[in-house]
Design a protein that fits this description.
312 residues; mainly beta; four-stranded antiparallel sheet; 24 strands
Length: 312
């Protein structure tokens, strides 16, 4: 029995440890709109390094950890590269239009993005493009809730006098519903927490000290102001460490910054990363507790390697 249990654990551990989604870990990625570039930094030292130097304004970014790729939007295109910035290629061409939000469903090899007042999906290589059945004013961003099979889209025309909406639909674009309407100053960046049953969004304002981060239950009830006094833009969630990240102005208002806080809006801080105008943010968190448990199990089994097993 000990032999069977040990073997099973070791095989499972090898599969988990070798799975590509855990490497690299503890890494932050962001785009800089003004410098047409994509950067990365480790949470251990926050030293930035340039991964991609593009030819136009880089906007939103999404990661495909399973295939070790990143996708980003730029005027007229959706592009991708390896996580180290090599092998840049264009996967979607959108002539005369600016794709904005981008999201990846690695499990089903699907790429999602928004253009103007439409949302689309395709295979990860750009083939098989489908227009989803959503329409609005200007779809700023989108996020996927794969546990419940939903897509969430932020719809705002960029006009201070126009109230925005958050839409929900199935991943194929069917069964469109309005989660929340009459949202002032946004929404733009958006993220979903299926375990907590919440949708988060960045509340943008042309006044740099008005706006922030808000959240609502997935059924549209219980709107909460988490962060105020920040004109937030892009947004992403780290559900492993229970944190929300967003882009905005530096504390002194002279340049851009990447901020984070707890999912409840506590412990707000600007990360010590120099950036001019961050327009997209994504991250790979530290390995999950499952991975750490497997590693601990391997260590424990190693201590018992001298145990003599009975002959069978």
């Amino acid at each position: 029995m000990l032999w069977r249990t040990s073997t099973a654990v070791l095989v499972f551990a090898a599969l988990v440890v070798s799975y590509p989604s855990i490497a690299p870990a503890n890494e932050l990625f962001w785009t800089d709109f003004n410098t047409h570039s994509i950067h990365g930094a480790s949470f251990s030292d926050y030293v930035p390094h340039t991964l991609v130097q593009d030819t136009d304004n880089t906007y939103r970014i999404a990661l495909d950890q399973a295939n070790e790729k990143m996708y980003w939007t730029i005027y007229g295109h959706v592009r991708r590269a390896n996580l180290d910035g090599t092998e840049v290629e264009t996967v979607i061409n959108t002539p005369g239009d600016m794709p904005l939000g981008v999201a990846v469903d690695s499990a089903h090899s699907r790429l999602y993005w928004t253009e103007s007042n439409h949302a689309y999906r395709a295979n990860l290589d750009g083939t098989g493009i489908e227009e989803l059945g959503l329409s609005g004013s200007i779809f700023q961003d989108l996020t996927l809730d794969l546990e419940n099979g939903h897509i969430y889209v932020s719809d705002w025309a960029g006009n201070p006098n126009y109230p925005g909406r958050i839409l929900q639909a199935n991943l194929d674009g069917s069964s469109v519903t309005t989660v929340l309407s009459d949202i002032s100053r946004g929404p733009v960046g958006i993220g979903a927490d299926p375990v907590g049953g919440k949708v988060y969004w960045a509340n943008f304002s042309f006044d740099p000290y008005v706006g922030g981060v808000q959240r609502v239950n997935m059924d549209g009830t219980g709107v909460e102001d988490l962060v105020t006094g920040h004109s937030a833009d892009a947004l992403t969630l780290d559900l492993t460490d229970q944190q929300v990240y967003w882009t905005g102005l530096s504390p002194d208002g002279t340049s851009g910054a990447i901020w984070r806080a707890g999912l409840d809006g506590s412990a707000i801080e600007a990360l010590p990363i120099p950036t001019i105008n961050p327009a997209g943010v994504a991250l790979i968190p530290e390995p999950s507790s499952l991975t750490l448990l497997v590693c601990a199990t391997i260590s424990l089994l190693a201590r018992h390697r001298r145990v003599r097993l009975p002959n069978r």
